[in-house]
Write the structure tokens for this entry.
Amino acid sequence: MTATILDGKALAKTIREEIAVEVAEFKEKRGFPPTIAVVEAGEDPASVSYARRIKRSFEGKGMGVELHVLRETASQEDMVKLVGELSADKGVHGIIIQEPLPKGMDEGAVKAALSPDKDVDGAHPLNAGRLAQAPFIDRSENAPPYFVPAAPLGGLEILKRYHIQIDGQQAVIVGANNLIGKPMAFLLVQNWATVTICDLHTSPLSEMTRRADILCSCTGVTHLIKAEMIKPGAVVIDFGFTRVGDKWMGDVDFEAAQEVAGAITPVPGGTGAVTTAMLMKNVLEAARRQVGWKE
């Protein structure tokens, strides 16, 4: 068996083209582009790479980008002040705070300074809470608007665009983090999957992962997921993105895993590219909400 490659790069290109049409319409009617502010402190390689990808992708489709890079020695007060100023700036429609934050900085205090209406990566507790309480996708309950982190939203988009069944499937998430793991679990639950969340303390981890029809990993531990840990025919979504020498590596041992899985995302060229596209979609939606856009 050789797995179907879930080509995130090609899918992202399609999504960006779709968004470009909507951005052009927004600019024509409003006279300014949907704009994101990227805030980071320090030179974490993955964060720097993501910021560059955001700038290239957004500007390439006519969207605005502001990069705000603080020194790794920046104080918490500096970060909170900057986030607060951007939240009040009407020319900025979306804000993303790059992680990791400098050591000793209170993540909660920084996120609290962020306007939920501009929190296009779903980091604010209000958006996270609304996602957790959101109804199933086929239920007509009224729910307030919220934003979902772009990475798990991209993972869900990959599953849907490749017509992979979610309803009734056993899904296992490896990595109980707030940025990807937990929101991905909520998204899959909304779509009627039965979800188990594991972390690095789950033992034996392989016993859990081999049950998964859909296996998602987001630990940042290179090649944590071996081929023998994957159920034959399973769909594998790899959110891992770690630099090893001159290469980017995922959580999954891709070369071996593709001989077992039914479908799999590569690294690079998988979830990362779609993450940026979904962030663009969130910023466009944020801009529309802020100007009272009517279809």
